[in-house]
Amino acid sequence: MANPFTGKTSSAGQRVKEIIEAAKLADEAGLDIFGVGEHHRLDYAISSPPVVLASIAQITKRIKLTSATTVLSTVDPVRLFEDFATLDLLSDGRAEIIAGRGAFVESFPLFGYDTNDYDALFSENIELFLKLNKNERMTWEGRFRSPLRNAEIAPRPLQKELPIWIGVGGTPSSAVRAGKLGVGMALAILGGDPERFKPLVDLYRQTGIEAGHGVEELKVGVTGHGYLSETTQQAKDEFYPYYSNYWPTVNRQRGMVSGRISYSEFEQLTAPDTALFVGSPQQIVEKILRQYELFGHQRFMAQLDIGGVPFEKVAKSIELLATEVAPIVRKATV
């Protein structure tokens, strides 16, 4: 997106280089995981997460590398498995996948799929992917892709299986699916009162246990928009122009029209009891731990670069998240 102060937009090349540098900073600072999304539009820089993550793998040492999110409905599960198994080998066992149906639908016509098959494609592809994850050879037949006849599925990842999570935006059916399959559930909580998501977490765990999965398999992650600065007021003042830049642009990309939010509306969105992670390190700690009381989740991921936030401000947020937030949260949630 264009910087709201300068009106200038980064090139795709600059954007990709900054994302790779952000991953390097996160790794050096001691954070646990770094993810990149998948979009097939000229106003986003990354359409191929495994390619970008493979580049990141070469300059990082320990941080886990995930898609966030893979649009599973419009990718061949075999190709996806091969790409991430290769990433796992290149990264010495650090690859993961968050699979979802995506917020945009341009990948459907681009790759020859029908949006009427939106859910059926996802269901078939996630079930096939999980089988590929467990078997070196596969015989399989479905509705949307050619059959597999004693096919060799190569390469195999370094990990026994690639960790896979299902991205959930708020629908009970998605939580039920993740629970039945026994995979992780990654909740996108972008604002409002996080307590409204507790029924989804409860439903996910209940469904998973009823399906025969152990509690330890049923991992919950939370993803939220975030921005950190030395004080909460400073963080709000600095982030407001970018956040108010973000939503009208995203809504326009999705065919909707919305105006810019006022500062008073923004202050309500960033209140202590909300899920928008904007504030001082202490404020962010308190928000994460409040959600931990609700969900007992295993992972928190912050998206720190929305609305045209300059790289130097992203880097500062990464530093504060790693040095002043993560140690306190880790100690409090052991």
From TrEMBL:
Domain of life: Bacteria
Keyword field: Monooxygenase, Oxidoreductase
Domain Luciferase-like: 8-294
Pfam families to which the protein is assigned, alphabetical: Bac_luciferase (PF00296)
Protein name per UniProt: LLM class flavin-dependent oxidoreductase
Native organism: Sporosarcina koreensis
